[in-house]
Amino acid sequence: MQDIANEAGMNKALLHYYFRNKETLFGMILSEAMGKLIPRAREIFDQDGPLADKIRAFVHAYITIVAEDPQMPLFVMHALHSREEEAVLMRFREIATQMPFMRFTEAILDAMERGEIRKLDPRQLIMNTLSLCLFPFVARPAFEVITRMEPDDYDTMLRDRATTVSDFILAAIAPTPSAPLTR
Prior knowledge:
- The chain is mainly alpha-helical.
- The chain has helices at 2-8, 12-18, 22-46, 51-68, 72-80, 85-96, 101-113, 122-138, 140-147, 151-173.
């Protein structure tokens, strides 16, 4: 809390007055961040239409929202693995229940039943989607060093990321490897 107060330019007592503990502060920050994604994700998965369109829309929204605050994934990961892990996990569970993952799962199962995509565990598809979206933000410094990529080039790559990820996912779940889903 002292580090946070120092960074915010306030004293620790004032920070504690507004946020009783780190879990409360974490909850507010997480709620604010998820508050941008959750309504958009619900809108996407509540609509009728092909799974491919939903995946493209979700990936685009997710990457766009994370790009607005690229440090957020690192903050969340650090908090989830902190000493106060159980309290943070409880708060994360409360907020995460608002995400429409059940609607995403239903859309995947419906698409499998109609033969639009191959049979797979919906949880794997959701994890792959989230991983492909988040990894470039979490691993940016390492990736820039490994590939000798300049920050401007990395930013350009991130702007293309939603299309790249969507195309990759849709090709991976196509009913047969030789018949990728079209836009």
